[in-house]
């Protein structure tokens, strides 16, 4: 969200006037302070959309019917206990898998196909109609879509095929082969996977330019689609005007404070970090009164359970969990901290990811403790020669925290050349828009 807001704020200075197409209501948490960053002169066309929650009563009724039929089958000797999350709907019950096979139930498979490629697919017809109306009123030259959600690319694909405009498609994360989504939904129907591959191919083969936010992701897609349009890397970044000034009250008295901001929803990564932290506390009991690790952001049930377990084992005075806070408060917490924390686990495909918070920390000139695999995120810090970096390994985490505590606070700027300044990155995006226009349209 922040990346898109800053793009539309900076693009006009480079000759491009954006018109934003958006649904009236989102399906997640909204930060009013972030919405205030939208320039008042910006044209925003808000449309209706078919929210998944509107279909919740229907899905609940179908699950109830399925449950009744399942109970009847039990009398015939069939086992029908099921468990597992439903990735397609925002709220789901535990009755989504077939107990005999362990595979997703037919209802779950149907939901995964209906909400393809994602929960925002209900926005497609409304957004497409709004884009056509906008073009008839005042013609536009370029469609710029960014994912996730992939639905944004589907809308742009339809616009590109219906109207004489150019299309720049940006993948902020890989789609096919995304390590995070593959782990979250390992049992998707084969039809779903085939559709996913087909849609990605259609996007890549139709767009006039393809943008990726890391060089490694760009290279991955070049290998996957060697005959596709030009692919370029335009990274995420930070906004200098967002930098917070450290307050006089810097939290717990005398404690060295490490702050993590953002959603905490991958328990394996949290477990690795807390295992290393616990080992350090066991070896250096004097640090329990001198160190605090604070997490600001939404926390999944699985991650909360991991944190609670380590709290009971002796980290209750060291680790603190806070709920979702506005972006300004999160950035202020980083400014007031001694170091900012990044967590990213290892595994196939994880080397392609760069957590957005990494750029926020760089923009704050904060000391960084980064648990990262070898790959794109590490390359950012290596390029800047910044931060204390460790492997996703408890032993390495333990020694890196100890090293961090003895490292002098940084006095220089993390990014003196402005490589990841959003104003600079928006200029590169504007140059892409200029480049895709036909000669007579420039």
How does this structure look, described?
The protein has 442 residues and is of the alpha/beta class. The chain folds into 3 domains: 2-19 and 28-42 and 133-237 and 423-441, 3-Layer(aba) Sandwich (Rossmann fold), CATH 3.40.50.2000; 52-114, no CATH class; 244-405, Rossmann fold, CATH 3.40.50. The chain is 42% helix and 13% strand. The protein has 16 helices and 12 strands. The chain has a 6-stranded parallel beta sheet, sandwiched between helices. A 4-stranded parallel beta sheet has the order 3-4-5-6, sandwiched between helices. Strands 1-2 form a two-stranded parallel ribbon. β8, α11 (301-315) and β9 form a beta-alpha-beta unit. It starts with a helix and ends in a 6-residue tail after the last helix.
Q: Helix fraction?
A: 40-55%
Mean pLDDT: 83
CATH architecture of the largest domain: 3-Layer(aba) Sandwich
Strands side by side in the biggest sheet: 9-8-7-10-11-12
Find the count of extended strands (DSSP E, 2+ residues): 12
Count of DSSP-assigned helices: 16
User: What is the string of helix and strand elements?
Assistant: HEHEHHHEHEHHEHEEHEHEHEHEHEHH
Terminal Cα separation, in Å? 29 Å
Strand content: 5-15%
**What number of structural domains do the residues give?**
3
């Amino acid at each position: 969200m922040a990346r898109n807001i800053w793009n539309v704020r900076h693009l006009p200075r480079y000759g491009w006037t954006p018109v934003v197409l958006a649904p009236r209501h989102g399906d997640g948490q909204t930060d009013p302070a972030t919405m205030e960053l939208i320039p008042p002169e910006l044209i925003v066309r808000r449309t209706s959309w078919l929210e998944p929650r509107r279909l919740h009563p229907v899905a609940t009724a179908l699950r109830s019917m399925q449950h009744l039929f399942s109970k009847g089958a039990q009398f015939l000797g069939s086992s029908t206990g099921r468990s597992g999350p439903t990735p397609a709907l925002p709220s789901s019950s535990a009755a989504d898998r077939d107990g005999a096979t362990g595979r997703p139930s037919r209802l779950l498979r149907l939901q995964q196909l209906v909400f393809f490629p994602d929960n925002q697919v209900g926005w497609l017809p409304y957004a497409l109609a709004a884009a056509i109306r906008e073009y008839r009123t005042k013609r536009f030259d370029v469609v710029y879509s960014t994912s996730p959600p992939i639905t944004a690319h589907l809308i742009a694909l339809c616009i590109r095929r219906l109207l004489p405009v150019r299309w720049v498609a940006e993948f902020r994360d890989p789609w096919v082969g995304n390590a995070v989504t593959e782990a979250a939904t390992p049992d998707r129907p084969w039809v779903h996977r085939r559709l996913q591959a087909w849609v990605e191919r259609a996007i890549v083969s139709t767009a006039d330019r393809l943008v990726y936010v890391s060089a490694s992701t760009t290279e991955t897609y070049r290998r996957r689609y060697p005959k596709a349009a030009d692919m370029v890397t335009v990274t995420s970044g930070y906004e200098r005007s967002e930098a917070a000034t450290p307050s006089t009250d810097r939290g717990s008295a005398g404690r060295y404070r490490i702050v993590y901001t953002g959603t905490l929803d991958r328990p394996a990564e949290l477990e690795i970090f807390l295992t290393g932290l616990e080992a350090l506390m066991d070896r250096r009991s004097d640090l329990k009164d001198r160190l605090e690790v604070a997490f600001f952001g939404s926390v999944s049930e699985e991650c909360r359970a991991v944190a609670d377990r380590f709290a009971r084992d002796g980290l209750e005075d060291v680790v603190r969990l806070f709920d979702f806070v506005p972006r300004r408060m999160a950035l202020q917490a980083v400014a007031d901290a001694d170091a900012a924390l990044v967590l990213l686990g290892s595994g196939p495909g994880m080397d392609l990811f760069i957590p957005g918070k990494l750029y926020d920390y760089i923009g704050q000139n904060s000391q960084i403790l980064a648990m990262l695999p070898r790959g794109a995120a590490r390359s950012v810090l290596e390029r800047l020669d910044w931060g204390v970096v460790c492997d996703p390994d408890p032993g390495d985490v333990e020694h890196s925290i100890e090293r961090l505590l003895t490292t002098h606070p940084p006095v220089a700027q993390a990014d003196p050349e402005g490589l990841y300044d959003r104003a600079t990155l928006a200029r590169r995006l504007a140059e892409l828009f200029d480049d895709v226009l036909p000669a007579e349209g420039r």
